Known about the structure:
Layout: E1 10-11, E2 14-19, E3 22-27, E4 32-33, H1 47-56, E5 60-61, H2 75-83, E6 86-89, H3 100-108, H4 111-122, H5 128-139, H6 143-149, H7 160-169, E7 173-181, H8 182-192, E8 199-202, E9 204-206, E10 212-215, H9 226-238, E11 243-247, H10 250-253, E12 263-267, E13 271-272, H11 274-277, E14 282-284, H12 287-293
Parallel strand pairs: 6-7, 6-11, 7-8, 11-12, 12-14
Antiparallel strand pairs: 1-13, 2-3, 4-5, 9-10
Helix pairs in contact: 3-4, 3-5, 4-5, 7-12
Amino acid sequence: xxxxxxxxxxxxxxxxxxxxxxxxxxFSRKISNTRVSVxxxxxxxxxxxxxxxxxxxxxxxxxxxTPFDNTLPSKEVLDVWNNANAVCFDVDxxxxxxxxxxxxxxxxxxxxxxxEWTARAMNGxxxxxxxxxxRLSLINPSLSQLQDFLKRPPRLSPGIDLLVKKLxxxxxxxxxxxxxxxxxxxxxxxxxxxxxxxxxxxxxLFGSNGEYAGFDKNEPTxxxxxxxxxxxxxxxxHGYKSLVMIGDGATDLEARMPGGADLFICYGGxxxxxxxxxxxxxxVFNFKDxxxxxx
Length: 295
């Protein structure tokens, strides 16, 4: 029998309020608006239109001072963002506020050890496949434990539902590309109206008695460079001329490569991994910035 499950270290502390059946976090950390002016140049042909977009994209910082200079998008970045045929999202700490495997580990009594491996994996200090195998071995989950864990509703990041809706309204295809697991991601996709066939993720395997039996190593997202490989597959299969990757970790950044993502947007609203954020084409702390920039 096979089971399917999700996952990704400075955190923005969040508290949650219940809205319908989904917990939506509201941040208790003070947010300040930073207003930046930019002289129009380059790729957007209508300068008045670009100026109105820039006016609406005032980055909402996680603190009053940031060491990053990529919180305001260039005209070239906005042009790619608005003309992309497809957008791929990481799930853990991006679409959802939790690191799925860390939450599952805590549920199973192995939280601290697994969280340490997750931080190392998402910062790129150890191969992803090594970290995945180590974490699952530490948890050693049974199918019944996974089923009990999945009774809890997923907790979505603030504004992700509105962003996905806006992208679909603008005729952009949306995908979930995750190092996490399908059983945990399927409910998220259903809430957001994303087709299940647009999920690229891993599978936990169980034996006939529900005992842990490893994970499916044939899934591209189970190994280093897997997200990049999945994004390349998506682009090639559908013939997309332009594609964007949004996430918080090193494996998401890897997807920006020839034949893969043209643009990497780092979402730092839940986890801010400085080494990743510094290399992003655009760093955002709030999905409203992305929504407001779509024309």
